[in-house]
Amino acid sequence: MELGHVVVLAGGMSFEREVSLRSGRRVTAALRALDIPVVLYDTDASLLDRLTNDPPDVVFPVLHGATGEDGSVRGVLELLGLPYVGARPDACRIAWDKPAAKTVVRRAGLCTPDSIALPKEVFHDLGAGAVLDRVIGVLGLPLFVKPTRGGSALGTSVVRRAQDLPAAMVGCFAYGDAALIERHVEGTEVAVSVIELADGPHALPAVEIVAPDSRYDYTARYDAGDTEFVTPARLSPAAAARATEAAVTAHRALGLRDLSRTDLIVDADGEVHFLEVNVAPGMTETSLLPRAVKAAGLDLGTVCHDLLLRRFP
């Protein structure tokens, strides 16, 4: 079975545009190294004409942020009748909404930090001070604040002092209209990527993230050298097995397909806590899924090719 025309989608107009373009270029280069005919398209006003006038065999979306991960562009691909790699729109919508995803995986038996989601309007209308005092009274400190939708750690922060919570909320609202405030779990931060093979989803080796000052923010994610990555993660065999099981469980419970990446914290007792899942994992030179692919002894281009073949009619 040969692929004659593959399109990689990247870019778009989200806050994560530049990261998406870097991911797209990496996937394109990895496929071209295998002599697969592939072109990289930006997600702009010319896209529909391009896809209609020269329909590809399969599309590989590498879009990060809104429209790329909320299922919107994938819905358009389905309207065009084009097969594509990755989760379908309905699954994307649930995974993209972090509070909704936490609810689904908790029902599936995973542990996830207690939290509350606060839209900007509620935060404002009910009185910021009173609401935040109550949040701290119930959830305690430290807390982790992040947009309910979004990625690349944009708008996120750890809050260890009550007086720092208002500023964290303001920073969060710069990237979204609602904030997820959850109890911050201290421990080892790991990412477990899942790829689907002929016999179902398989977890790749966990990647441990050791960020400067324990702050895995946008800069630490995408500036080479700022963060140490250890693969496989330095976990006990039992904790590593639980992390693997958690990632596969999240992938299945959320109805994802082909690939995903689940972010977890493993606490001092070896308990695994689900944080969030990504339906379009980064593919840059510092991204976690390519590191896990390499640690598993696999080639990124071959993995991408195999995923494309899964969707090839």
Could you explain the architecture of this structure?
By secondary structure, the chain is an alpha+beta fold. The protein has 3 domains: 6-86, Rossmann fold, CATH 3.40.50; 93-111 and 186-279, D-amino Acid Aminotransferase, Chain A, domain 1, CATH 3.30.470.20; 115-183, Dna Ligase, domain 1, CATH 3.30.1490. Helix content is 38%, strand content 22%. It has helices spanning 17-32, 47-53, 72-79, 89-96, 98-107, 120-125, 128-139, 165-173, 218-222, 237-253, 288-295, 300-311; strands at residues 6-10, 38-42, 58-61, 115-119, 143-147, 157-159, 178-183, 188-197, 200-203, 207-210, 228-230, 259-266, 272-278. The longest helix has 17 residues, at 237-253. Mean pLDDT is 92; it is low at 216-222. One of its GO terms (biological process) is cell wall organization. Keywords: ATP-binding, Cell shape, Cell wall biogenesis/degradation, Cytoplasm, Ligase, Magnesium, Manganese, Metal-binding, Nucleotide-binding, Peptidoglycan synthesis. It is an enzyme of class 6 (ligase).
What labels describe this entry?
313 residues, D-amino Acid Aminotransferase, Chain A, domain 1, 3 domains, four-stranded antiparallel sheet, 12 helices, 38% helix, manganese, cell shape, metal-binding
What is the secondary structure topology, with strand pairs?
Elements: E1 6-10, H1 17-32, E2 38-42, H2 47-53, E3 58-61, H3 72-79, H4 89-96, H5 98-107, E4 115-119, H6 120-125, H7 128-139, E5 143-147, E6 157-159, H8 165-173, E7 178-183, E8 188-197, E9 200-203, E10 207-210, H9 218-222, E11 228-230, H10 237-253, E12 259-266, E13 272-278, H11 288-295, H12 300-311
Parallel strand pairs: 1-2, 1-3
Antiparallel strand pairs: 4-7, 5-6, 5-7, 8-9, 8-10, 8-12, 10-11, 12-13
Helix pairs in contact: 1-12
